[in-house]
Design brief:
Blueprint (H helix, E strand, L loop, with lengths): L1 H7 L2 H13 L4 H14 L8 H12 L4 H9 L10 E2 L4 E5 L12 H5 L8 E5 L4 E2 L15 H4 L15 H21 L8 H22 L3 H12 L1 H8 L6 H15 L6 H14 L8 H19 L20 H4 L7 H11 L4 H9 L4 H13 L1 H10 L3 H16 L2 H11 L1 H14 L2 E3 L11 E3 L4 H4 L4 H11 L2 H9 L1 H12 L7 E2 L13 H20 L8 H22 L9 E2 L4 H15 L5 H4 L3 H22 L9 H10 L8 H14 L2 H11 L19 H20 L8 H15 L4 H7 L17 H8 E4 L2 E2 L5 E2 L2 E4 L1 H6 L3 H7 L4 H17 L30 H15 L7 H16 L27 H4 L4 E9 L3 H14 L5 H13 L5 H16 L25 E10 L1 H13 L7 H5 L11 H15 L1 H14 L10 H38 L5 H9 L1 H7 L3 E2 L6 E2 L7 E10 L28 H15 L2 H7 L7 E12 H18 L1
Antiparallel strand pairs: 1-4, 2-3, 5-6, 7-8, 9-12, 10-11, 13-14, 15-16, 17-18
Amino acid sequence: MMAASLLRRDKKSTAAHLKADLKRTDNSSGLRQLQELLDSVLNPERGSDPESLEWCKWLLAGGEGFDEFCRTVRSYDNATLCGLVWTANFVAYRCRTCGISPCMSLCAECFNNGDHTGHDFNMFRSQAGGACDCGDGNVMRESGFCSRHRLKTGENVQLVPRDLLLMSEMVLPRFIITIIQYLRDGYTEPESAADRDLQKVLQQLDPHISFLEELTKMGGAMRTVLTKILTNQQTFKELSMGQEENVYAKKNYEKYLSALKSSGLVSVEERGTGGAAAGATESPGGALSLLGATAAAVLEDSSKEEDQDGLQGVGQRKRVKLSSSTKDPSIMDTLKHKCFLEELLFWTIKYEFPQKMVTFLLNMLPDQDYKITFTKTFVQHYAFIMKTLMKSHESDTMSNRIVHISVQLFSNEELARHVTEECQLLDIMVTVLLYMMESCLIKSELQDEENNRHVVVNCGEALLKNNTYWPLVSDFINILSHQSVAKRFLEDHSLLLLWMSFVSFFQGMNLNKRELNEHVEFESQTYYAAFAAELEACAQPMWGLLTHCKVKETHEYTKTVVRYCLETLQMWFDAIGFVDEPALNQLTFHLPLHRYYAMFLSKGVKCQGLDLDSLLPDQEMLMKIMVHPLQIQASLSEIHSNMWVRNGLQIKGQAMTYVQSHFCNSMIDPDIYLLQVCASRLDPDYFISSVFERFKVVDLLTMASQHQNAVLDSEQERPMLEGALTFLVLLCSLRIHLGMSDDEILRAEMVSQLCMNDRTHSSLLDLIPENPNPKSGVVPGSCSFEEMLSAVADFKAPVFEPGGSMQQGMYTPKAEVWEKEFDPIMVILRTVYRRDVQSAMDRYAAFLKQSGMHTGNPWPPYKERTPLHPSYKGLVRLLHCKTLHIVIFTLLYKIWMDHQNMSEHVLCMVLYLIELGLDNQVQEDKVEEEPCIEEHCHDSWFPGTSLLSNLHHVINFVRVRVPETAPEVERKRERERERETPPSTSSESSTYGQNLREAQVFSLVAERRRKFQEIINRSNHEASQAARPKSSSTRWLPPGSPPQLVTEILEIRESMLSLLVKLHQKLSAKQNSLSLSWLAEVDPAKHSHGDGITAIERILAKAATRSRHSKRCLQDICGKVNPPIPPKKNSPGDKKSMDKEERRQRARERQQKLLAEFASRQKSFMETAMDVESPESDAVMDVGSSELLDSEVLYDCVICGQSGPSTDDRPTGLVVLLQASSVLGHRCRSDTPKRLPTTDEEQIYPEDTCGATHDVRLSIMQRYFKDSSCLQSVSIGWDGGVYVQTCGHTLHIDCHKSYMESLRVRDQQLF
């Protein structure tokens, strides 16, 4: 009755009356009246009523106008933080110079009112929303505060009068519980609720939440009142359950309890059924046994599922449960709430973060007490947030709003450290990440598909494709940016082990299997998800941890991470069943465990002064570690050689992404560095042999003119050989992790990008890898991006084009950069498209031509390298091992002899390796200045390992295995016939026997196996050779029977120096290209830019200046090739005319060679096109199969992209267009030229055309015979002619059939 009378009165007077009663000492009457009034006004059963909001406003104001009340409260604002909250697409600022946290942001007003002159800042459009950090000293430096928040405004503000906010303290608790009850009542579980039902509830509540948001904008005084109400446990306990007689409140409370049951990370049902299994997998090893436990659980689960359902296949999705020993029960249990704030956040999560609610919760953050309590509440609900996110249908929107909140909480280091210590934030995050990834684990098929016990994430799952894990990973990266939190993480060994287990889920994911027969029907795009997952979930946290391992005091952290990386890698090798050989035709670009190990290794040596050998495993483990990164490098060449063409375009997309600027420093750079470490510690002969074997070019490295390659087609050999040599040059040249400073790395990256193309400032900033080089000058002692850019590039101002549009300003390399710093090796490493390498070379050629240094087509210049860090001096041994020298000698010989598949690029890389070897001598080896006495080397080609000594060593005879049809066999038969005719003397036979003994034999495969066995026996003396599976079981074998090979002895009598001299003559097309006088004036510095001739001259000059013996050998070689000629006086005119005539002669020879080659191809094409069978052709085929193979025409299939001859098993067709045409009907019998008709009587088609004759014949026949008989006799007639055209493309008949079938299936699906 009292409430009814109050409702009938005026709101203003009622509010004033109640406020006056509550201010009295005995305010029990006022309290009773207010409670009865609020029971009526804020009745949740009445729904959202605008009248109730009006009542609340008047009650809060206590009889004054609400606007006047708001102004009064704002005058007591004591907040020192801005805290302005914005949503997505809001334009804000970020100043890297002022920011302590990388997530710092400022609103436009605070940025403009602060002093950021000369700072590194950017303006951005917010993706997920944010809040202004101005005034927060934990997030940004005070020097960046605006003029308003730089002042300690709280010190000058008067105390708030007690009665000003008295009504607010009484009314707002009831207002908030009304909102909570309405949220309870409106919620139903997602299985039974539609999105529009939840939206309807939120729409009706919108005015109430907007009112709360309006209250937060009144300033610090009102936020303090709200904080007390939201965090008061007693008030929540009194109001939450409702009164006994209130049925509506009790029903809602039961709904709330029901909703709480599913709030745990593992539900009650899952906990009940999974308890026994969890206990079974529990082991004393704890977190260390997690990897093996998960794999075992997968296999156990899969066997049960396969028994129950025959359709369950290997590799299909299987759920894995972690052991209970690895998870904290407090993380797994259901939630319990103690205050309004906790339940409000709970319903905010349940309703999937409505924007109004998020804004209200964020607007309260300037109150420090609220911020601490809210952060703890957020961490308490963290697992529940991620569980809800995984089930959400609007995960993108929800993700943005989660990050909108979390970034404000975790950017503050003090707060992040506080909740890490008190609320186990790190444990919660790692556990929740593991839980999320468990939902999409599948059995790995890498290496041993049948017995593989490793599990990886399935990149086709929505969790990975939609980046649902992004908010959690973003928060994890954010808190690891704080040194105190990262230090706690690195000190907690159980957490580190859990994290390594998490990383292992990505090891070997998105496995590619090379298609050998059919083109893949559907090109999967899962590689986007795979690369994004490794970068965000593995690499970014790694970079965050590495930033805290830069000083010697933290070296123990590095040692711990390295140790756990090795342990996890060993478990991974055991789980996949790896011994020493990678599986055939498999490729994964994802090896995060290798990259973690590599980067912590690099940081420990470079920044902390750790001994590299103390961080490395034994030789056997090193050999295992190098296999998969090396396989990736070989597969890159395979992809560019079109060996993976049947896998579609997506495999090229993976290869390009692997080296792309946003991924390269987290993928290819660690891989190359890890291979450099392995190469510096393993036997160099073993490493070189492994490289050429992985690149599948072992069969090509023979001095015979012909060879049989069991695994590569002829057109694939050259790009694979070029890839192997380029990789070796990269391996020996790159110093990114082997001695270069951060400033040097930034400069090299910038130069390589500018040399490819002129760049705008923004594109160049985007192309430079972010880690480990910060692009701003925040890090003390580092050179800023702008300073470096001005040092290496000139700016070309924007210009207007003729059409009126403006071309952007570009940066172009300075002239001295082209002359001294252009590094083609760095360009090759950083190019996504092969055309960029050619673009850089074209620009380099244009510079040389313009500056007058060189007018022809230059070769890639040789660049001096940064000195190696002492820990990696062993890498130089690669350049000074006999295996590489044999390969170099063989390739020089093959190029000189014009063997097939030898290219200019092969010679360029061989010369580069020689020059690297000359510039990087092994210190412990003393160069022999006196000629050594040659002995007959039966097992070794060269007497030592020094390249400088081996350059002049002469190889006399080489034993090779060749096909029976090779020219070497023919020459041997001719020699035998010559011996049979005249009786051979004893001296001849003894010479031949001596040659046979002296002939060098070499097999890369045999050498690698021998070295491997030596290392195994050295590391484990008790290991039996018979116990280890032989690598030959997984060797590449040719299809069908092996080719018939015979052994022949080649007479070589050359050294590397003599071959270089002969190649110089060949390139220069001059017999006397190198004279003795040239050797007397040799100077390597004169030959820095030029072509292949210049490169050889530079190498010979370096060899001559660094070894007197090499200089004498060069003099002997030049003297034998070009005996001294008496000087002859020639006039300059005679010399000029001779050079001109010589150039003409060379041009004529090249022209004749091209014409002969063209005629040969034309003839072979005609022979293949003519379908003539005769006994003679069969006889020819039987006699000389090799000659027929040479004349076979290769056709390119436009569907599968492969090249090959047309065979009976797989015929090739020509693409033609057939069109109906009546042109034949217009032929005339007479040769009289036709005239255009000028009158109606004249006709353009006279009576003597073929069509008219045909019509007359048909009409006569129809007079005497039946129509059916007549039509059969004339076939289709003149108007049914066929016109045939072709574009010249060819395709396989079976490919065409598959393509047409796919079109038919697609049409059926569409209609």
